[in-house]
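Final report, closing paragraph on structural work. Over the funding period we assembled a curated collection of sequence-structure pairs, and we close with a single example.
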Amino acid sequence: MRLQEKVAIITGAGSGMGRVAAQLFAAEGAKVVVAEFDQVAGNDTVESVLEAGGDATFVRTDVSQEADAKAMVDHAVACYGRVDVLYNNAGVMPEPDHSVIDTDVATWDKVMAVNVRGVFLGCKYAIPQMLEQGSGSVINISSFVALLGCSVPQDAYTASKGAVLSLTRSLAVQFGPRGVRANAICPGPIETPLLMDWLLKDEAAKQLRLARNPTGRFGKPEEIVNAAIYLASDESRWTNGASFVIDGGISVNYF
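Its predicted structure, as stored:
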């Protein structure tokens, strides 16, 4: 097993890519802390891991709140004695997020609070524990939109994911010499309930996005999580400060 005995905190693990991450990390031997705001969804994820023979525990977490971020790390240490992986997966992409000229301030602030402050706070409390251990892996979920402009904008989301990329690089330089690595994954559109619910309501938007992807399809959650497993494992000991773009080729397609 590639993650045998490693302790992984996964934020936003109650659904979508986060739930798949919890399940696949546990299948590779990790002890998983499901950090999720929705208590029912978080406990459902834990139950699915336990039913498959894995090890997981739930802690209710609003990643944008400092007390919750600290409690999340304290919970991991209390239950398992250490933190080997911080998987900053939690994120929001609200429907009112559009162009800077018509996105309201409340929407902007909500996106930044979860997508940027949430990563900052998780790192603020998990990295000191990793430094004490002398090792650790921070995995930040950014997005391909952090690298490209978009004619159908979601400017708060895009700005937040660009911030995550920049923060990841800074973490890699600061803490790599002390055994704590930081890397980012930049997914393209993934078949999660959040995205599919939106696109099923708007066939034109769905076809527009599919047309730009050379593979002709959206990604599967496990196709992102498999990269995260690599970053969490000892196989990636010399991978630090990287930005993995996994988007089916959208970012290299010009037409």
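The mean pLDDT is 95. The CA atoms of residues 99 and 155 lie 5 Å apart. We thank the funder for supporting this effort.
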